[in-house]
Amino acid sequence: MRILVTGGAGFIGSALVRRLVEHTAHEVLVFDKLTYAGVLSSLESVAASNRYSFVQADICDADAVSKALQEFRPDVVAHLAAESHVDRSIDGPGDFIQTNMVGTFVMLNQTLGYWRALNEDAKAAFRFHHISTDEVFGSLGEDGFFTETTPYDPRSPYSASKAGSDHLVRAWGHTYGLPVLVTNCSNNYGPYHFPEKLIPLIIIRALNGEPLPVYGDGSNVRDWLFVDDHARALQAVFETGTPGETYNVGGNAERKNIEVVTAICSILDRLRPKDEGQYADQITYVTDRPGHDHRYAIDASKIRSDLDWTPAVTFEQGIEQTVAWYLENQSWWQDILDARYSTQRLGVANG
Ligand code: NAD
Ligand code: DAU
User: Fold this and answer.
1) Positions of the chain with pLDDT under 50
2) Contact call for residues 56 and 65 (beta carbons, < 8 A)
3) How many angstroms separate the CA atoms of 95 and 329, rounded?
4) Quick check: helix, strand or coil at residue 273?
5) Handedness of CA 205, 209, 215, 220 (dihedral sign)
6) pTM score > 0.85 for this model?
7) Inter-axis angle of helices 257-271 and 315-328, to 10 degrees?
8) Ligand 1 center to residue 273 CA distance, Å?
9) Looking at the DSSP assignment, which residues form a beta bridge with residue 127?
């Protein structure tokens, strides 16, 4: 298949592209604006493949999207391009509305025009796969899980913009017949994760001898999924999922934030012991994120039963692999720290 991946230079997009080029016969076009979060070095291992190509463009640019569709002629559009960081959405929501909502509208509208002109077989086989988040469902108490039928209740500018984009995608499926798929996934982690997110930020700040900021009292819960398991799920959905359906994807690995931070500290104590003391000594509780959702947890039974997907990597295996990757790939993250973002606190606009 020919797969156009928007946001393919980001964390999850690059994991998907590496998987498709290295483990399948599919051809891939990455369509990415290369914002602060787009990192071309994450695609270095596939850059020489003749089944990989790249175009730098904005999903809000209808002409650029149309040109890419007409020239590449995809069987699948895997739409991952987005502004993805909750804290940045608190400081500057405008980019989130623009890229996540307007950009998704442009992708849908241009794809619809392209799809309508395909022959009947190609039309039936085509898929527009929208990659979304569990944050659209809001926040859970101590019990319960998000299912595909949980009502939407987004609570941050980021999750509200993703919820809006999910609704647009379903509307284009329902109204125009575009064969759409939506996946809502829990927190990913793994190699090539941008240092603004909790896990890479803690690893890097620990190694740099800096305070490890835990928001609030550290009791917020996230359901962690190793990024390569997400990439496998995405492939299963666009290859074998039923158009019009939504699939929740999750790692069945709920952890309190403080547990995640202490797990990273213990691995570092073993792999890169400090001269004096332990990494956990650097933990510092800081002002909470405004509107901080308490708990996310995914019920992934539908994708397990319908598409035979389960996570292959446990949290303990994945976090060990991730810490080891950051130790071995300092040049990847040091370039980002030097030029783009140096792990300072975000998302406390107005105090
Ligand atoms: P990321 O921030 O690492 O990467 C986003 C990519 O999109 C970057 O390469 C960036 O350059 C590109 N991009 C941004 N705006 C663009 C625009 N206007 N035009 C073209 N390209 C643009 O994000 P990620 O963590 O890899 O997330 C990818 C997708 O998965 C997002 O849609 C996100 O909402 C969703 N998601 C993420 C997680 C997670 O834990 N990271 C979980 C569930 C769903
Ligand atoms: O649930 C899926 C979502 O997971 C994705 O849709 C988002 O794109 C992705 O960024 C992620 O959102 P979170 O807000 O959960 O991820 P983040 O890494 O920013 O934070 C994880 C938890 O850790 C959250 O409860 C806030 C907390 N945190 C975060 C940072 C950056 C801290 O305690 N300290 C920090 O320094």
Assistant:
1) 351
2) no
3) 30
4) coil
5) positive
6) yes
7) 50
8) 34
9) 76
